[in-house]
Design brief:
Elements lengths: L9 E2 L4 E2 L25 E5 L1 H4 L16 E2 L2 E2 L1 H14 L12 H9 L4 E7 L5 E7 L2 H12 L3 H8 L2 E5 L10 H4 L8 H5 L3 H10 L8 H23 L16 H15 L5 E5 L10 H13 L3 E5 L3 H6 L3 E5 L8 E6 L1 H6 L4 H7 L17 E7 L7 E6 L3 E5 L6 H18 L10 E3 L6 E4 L13 H4 L3 H9 L2 H6 L23 E4 L7 E4 L10 H4 L8 H6 L2 H7 L4 H12 L16 H14 L6 E6 L7 H16 L3 E5 L3 H6 L2 E6 L8 E6 L1 H4 L6 H9 L2
Parallel strand pairs: 9-10, 15-21, 15-22, 17-20, 20-21
Antiparallel strand pairs: 1-2, 3-8, 4-5, 6-7, 11-12, 13-14, 13-16, 18-19, 22-23
């Protein structure tokens, strides 16, 4: 039989033709390579039936279909459509959704294939009848999401949507033609899904003549050399567990910095000043040596490396330390000590030196709390690298989740436990990771994730407003005799609404001046001199201070001012207790560090009336904290537990780990070498577990 071949990338039998294969063919950011269905994203936003109907014990009449409900009930338009549908399919709208037949639910959600008779009675009593196909709740939401030009409507519908792998490319992001190209049975996306250590091993495997011929090797040799070198740099900074396809938004600050460090090492530059801000974030003590060797490598080729750091191992490895202090905020800003590690350790004024020398330590608890007999049990956790593990978290104590970077800690706690509890308590739309079940949810009444994100994204948000302290302060000013005689209400002392605020700057205190081709400049308002208020509001004083003076006072100063006002004093005292006595009540949220923002949130929780059944989750709360800050943080966490609550920490800091009542250690390694439950028990017993890296390092701090 005659067979026809083509010299081009085409097939004359199935009419498929490919363009020339080039680098952009394998880029999901380029139309030449991206999947046409999802445009290279790898996922599509679709309406999730479980989010549209979260409570299946409700009836349609009672507003079970949340995607169509407003104020807890269906609109008359949507109700008329469902009434028309119920007459055709003979189902009732006054029974719980869970009792309806699967075929009926499919029709309600996905619509009908044929036209049905519909009727609608208007408010004026007119009845309209017509024949049309019922598009279904999901079809209606997806159509409106696609057609609307309103961002508000789109965001409203997104509450009922979730991201699912694209059906066109199965989440691979590229066209089928691009995925058809393989090297040693691997597509470019399957290689991208490998961890950095796996990718390095795969590069070595390519030396096998069965995979690459001598001709192929000669073509690829320079590329393979470049790939191998770059992967080795990433391995050297302790990132072996990251997958090459990991999105940048999911990286911790420390991981992102270490990737940039690896890039700089690869550049081979000399005579450069490198500035790093806490590159050890998210790094287990077992991996410290890798980062230290990398930093020393930069130094040894003729560069200067300047690091802002709180990690003890990195401080001890430094050639020169500059210690600032002695305190924080207005109590700091001075060079307390400068020189070698030994010189810092001998300085009596340096808190850092005292902790390094052992003169000051974070004490190990003499006894461990006994848990209250209640648990949270996670069964069959198998998201990402978790190997279908069962984990029991005791309640009523301080629990620390430990393990090397990439062992699965954040996946277990943030992706599975927190998202599932958020669904249960707050009807959150984020889907948790894969697991079989979580038992014991009835033992807690809420979950709070206290992270280091800002307490607000504008200068209007500050510690006074976030903690709720500003409301009783405004009410107090409204009770001053002069304010009462003028008829002023608490709103007069708000810088967010008209009345008492300065209208020239709308209560900001600063005027933003737009600069052409340059960053905008903020200058103090000339009208109010940055006080935020107008003259009338500033004339009202409490103990000789205006409302603006109060906002400019520190927490410590405000405690003295309001010592006789319990409602205000209680909230201020918690800020003082978490070590934030130096911050100003009106300090803009944008000027607070991550650690300070986290402690403001902790203070807010402490000032609330304890239920004794709250679960607090903190992911690496020691980020950005010095030894003294960690000591204060620990005291706050112990107070939360003493009130009967449960605290779960994801942490690498050995001083916090040794202070926990219970440790759950995951690992033993990172990526595919982790994901197992290595140890659970007290910190003391962890030191006897040979498979636990955390246990090995705990030996030194539990002496």
């Amino acid at each position: 039989d005659e067979m026809i071949f083509s010299e081009e990338f085409s097939c004359v039998y199935c009419n498929v033709s490919l363009g020339e294969i080039e680098p952009r063919t394998f880029s999901f950011n380029n139309p030449h390579g991206a999947c046409s269905t999802c445009t290279g994203l790898g996922f599509k936003m679709v309406v999730d039936p479980d989010l549209v109907i979260p409570d299946k014990t409700k009836t349609i009449e009672d507003g079970a279909i949340e995607g169509w409900s407003k104020g807890g009930s269906l609109s008359s338009w949507h109700m008329s459509q469902l009434n028309s549908l119920s007459e055709i399919d003979s189902f009732r709208i006054d029974v719980p959704i869970q009792e309806l037949e699967p075929e009926t639910m499919d029709m309600i959600l996905n619509g009908t294939k044929t036209k049905i008779k519909m009727s609608y009675r208007s408010r004026r009593g007119r009845t309209f009848r017509w024949n049309r196909r019922f598009e279904g709740v999901i079809g209606n939401l997806e159509r409106r999401y696609t057609e609307t030009e309103s961002e508000k409507v789109r965001k409203d519908i997104e509450r009922y949507m979730t991201s699912l792998p694209c059906q066109g490319c199965s989440g691979q992001r590229l066209k089928p033609e691009s995925l058809a190209v393989t090297i040693g049975d691997e597509t470019i996306m399957s290689v991208s899904d490998k961890s950095i250590s796996e990718a390095a091993d795969w590069i070595v495997l390519l030396e096998n003549p069965k995979i690459l011929s001598n001709r192929d090797k000669s073509i690829a040799s320079q590329i393979l050399k470049e790939l191998s070198g770059r992967l080795q740099f990433l391995l050297n900074v302790g990132l072996d567990y990251l997958t090459l396809s990991r999105t940048a938004s999911t990286l911790s600050g420390g991981e992102a910095q270490r990737i940039r460090l690896a890039t700089q090492i690869g550049s081979g530059l000399m005579g450069v000043l490198y500035v790093c801000d806490e590159p050890s974030i998210g790094l287990h003590p077992a991996d410290d040596y890798r980062l230290i060797n990398t930093l020393k490598g930069l130094r040894d080729v003729g560069n200067t490396v300047l690091i802002v750091e709180h990690d003890e191992a990195i401080m001890r490895a430094a050639d020169h330390i500059v210690d600032l202090g002695p305190g924080a905020g207005e109590h700091g800003g001075e060079i307390v000590a400068s020189g070698t590690v030994s010189k810092i350790m001998s300085s009596k004024n340096s808190l850092t030196g005292q902790y390094l020398s052992g003169a000051k330590v974070i004490d190990t608890p003499q006894t461990r709390r006994l848990f209250n007999g209640k648990y949270l049990e996670i069964e069959g956790a198998e998201q990402n690298n978790l190997n279908s593990i069962d984990v029991t978290i005791p309640l009523g104590i301080l629990v620390c989740i430990t393990g090397v970077s990439g062992s699965g800690k954040s996946t277990l706690i943030n992706e599975i436990l927190y998202k599932r509890l958020s669904q249960h308590f707050y009807r959150a739309k984020d889907r948790p990771g894969k697991f079989k079940s979580i038992k014991g949810i009835e033992n807690i009444d809420k979950v709070v994730n206290i992270d280091q994100s800002p307490i607000g994204r504008t200068p209007r948000s500050n510690p006074a407003t976030y903690t709720g302290t500003f409301t009783p302060i405004r009410e107090l000013f409204a009770q001053v005799p002069e304010a009462r005689s003028r008829g002023y209400k608490p709103g007069r002392f708000s810088f967010n609404v008209k009345g008492g605020r300065c209208e020239a700057c709308s209560g900001d205190g600063y005027i933003n001046i737009e600069m052409q081709f340059l960053p905008d400049v903020s200058v103090p308002c000339e009208e109010c001199q940055a006080s935020r208020y107008n003259r009338e509001a500033l004339e009202i004083e409490y103990r000789g201070l205006s409302i603006s003076n109060v906002l400019q006072s520190t927490v410590t100063e405000a405690l003295t001012i309001f010592s006789n006002i319990p409602r205000i004093k209680t909230k201020l005292q918690t800020l003082q207790d978490v070590g934030l006595g130096y911050i100003k009540l009106g300090q803009p949220a944008t000027q607070l560090s991550g650690g300070e923002a986290q402690r403001v949130k902790l203070a807010t929780e402490l000032s609330k009336r304890a239920t004794g059944q709250t679960l607090y989750i903190l992911d690496e709360p020691t980020t950005g904290l010095s030894f003294e800050d960690c000591s204060q943080l620990l005291r706050v966490l112990q107070r939360l537990v003493d009130a009967g609550n449960s605290v779960v920490l994801i942490e690498h800091h050995l001083d916090l780990i040794k202070s926990a009542d219970w440790i759950i250690d995951l690992g033993p390694g990172a990526g595919d070498k982790g994901g197992n439950l290595v140890y659970e028990g007290t910190p003391e017993n962890a030191t006897h577990n040979k498979g636990s890296y955390t246990g090995r390092y705990l030996k030194n701090v539990l002496k």
